[in-house]
Specification:
single chain, 259 residues, alpha/beta, six-stranded mixed β-sheet, four-stranded antiparallel β-sheet, 32% helix, globular
Length: 259
């Protein structure tokens, strides 16, 4: 079972944003969605979450239409980290992490003592115990992202969807976040994220989806033959002939070649 999109179309204000998208996502490995600004990556994620109405087509979560899932049921399946999320005032990092327990608690509370204990445990596993008592509004961008990922561990979902989690992060933090997400996938979670940098996608992704001109124009899995050559052709179609993908010491690398 997984997430399945069948001939999905999305229109906003009379304009087609996504067109005839069919694909299946399995809860294994790291899947990265690549596309230029405005390609519709966020809209696609919102559709998968049932937050965006479809003009045509259907989306299924574990064989059931995504719109048919109750909010709490769905939040036990998918943890979503948007590009930017307003941080609650007066909320510490450990409290925010513990709120991942909300899908399993009564409506009048977001977590209990067990949730706080689990939050502290996971923050320690992530190596960020030092931020536990700090206000979320006082954390750096990278710290907020790590805490948000920790919160999804408390949420105990088989799926994580992250919308551009590397935005505004420095070089070191980008790799720390991607290494953490790869670890999450190794522990059995399906990880799907949007990203702008093809070089990072090629380094960390098990599967790369290319969104261009309203469609999924490429679906590349690392284990399949022709991964490098076919991916390079498609990247050049989107970003230009300056994109070069080559292999060195068993790793695929991407760089921009000046002309």
């Amino acid at each position: 079972m997984g997430i399945e999109l069948r001939e999905v179309w999305v229109s906003l204000h009379g304009q087609v944003i996504l067109q005839d998208i069919s694909l299946t996502l399995c809860a294994e490995g790291v899947t990265m969605l690549l596309g230029r600004n405005g390609a519709g990556k966020t809209t696609l994620f919102r559709a998968v979450l049932g937050q965006q109405a479809l003009a045509k087509g259907q989306i299924f979560l574990d064989g059931k239409p995504v719109q048919a899932w109750k909010p709490k049921e769905k939040s036990r399946k998918i943890a979503y980290i948007p590009q930017e999320k307003e941080m609650p005032l007066g909320c510490t990092a450990e409290e925010y992490t513990a709120m991942g327990q909300a899908p399993y608690t009564p409506f009048y509370k977001s977590y209990d003592k067990e949730g706080l204990r689990l939050a502290r445990q996971i923050l320690a596993e992530f190596g960020i115990s030092h931020v536990a008592k700090r206000q979320m509004t006082q954390l750096s961008g990278g710290e907020k992202k790590l805490v948000a990922i920790a919160r999804t561990r408390v949420q105990k979902t088989p799926w994580m969807i992250l919308d551009e989690p590397l935005a505004a992060l420095d070089f070191k933090r980008q790799h720390e976040i991607l290494q953490r997400l790869r670890q999450e996938s190794r522990e059995g979670r399906g990880v799907v994220l949007s990203i702008h940098d093809p070089a990072l996608a090629v380094q960390y992704a098990d599967r790369i989806l290319l969104l261009h001109e309203k469609r999924i124009v490429g679906d590349f899995q690392r284990q399949k033959t022709g991964f490098s050559s076919e991916l390079e052709k498609n990247l050049q179609n989107i970003y230009g002939k300056q994109v070069v993908l080559w292999e060195k010491e068993g790793q695929n690398l991407v760089y921009w070649k000046e002309v």
